[in-house]
């Protein structure tokens, strides 16, 4: 369960940003999850609630969105959308892919008071 360590790092970033902008409280957080990030939504929500206790983000709304992953096919030179690791290129069937995006967790937006 790597979600708790991700949430601890995210809360640290959220608090840093909130304090830089003079916020007293964070009311909402928007996170973007890459389709290949191996992050479980339920575990992320549970970990976020735990990690945010006694911080500026305690009790805030958590909005999650899953972003599709993109890969480059070395055999047919196409940029493709994939949903999981070891997926074949839908154009040529090759498994020689370079993942370009979809493995990250991003803090997209904060709402503060």
Automatic annotation (TrEMBL):
Example GO biological process: protein maturation
Molecular function (Gene Ontology), one example: nickel cation binding
Transmembrane segments: none
Binding site for Ni(2+): 2
Binding site for Zn(2+): 73, 76, 89, 92
Keyword annotations: Metal-binding, Nickel, Zinc
Pfam families per record: HypA (PF01155)
Function: Involved in the maturation of [NiFe] hydrogenases. Required for nickel insertion into the metal center of the hydrogenase.
Family affiliation: Belongs to the HypA/HybF family.
Entry protein name: Hydrogenase maturation factor HypA
UniProt source species: Chania multitudinisentens RB-25
Gene designation: hypA
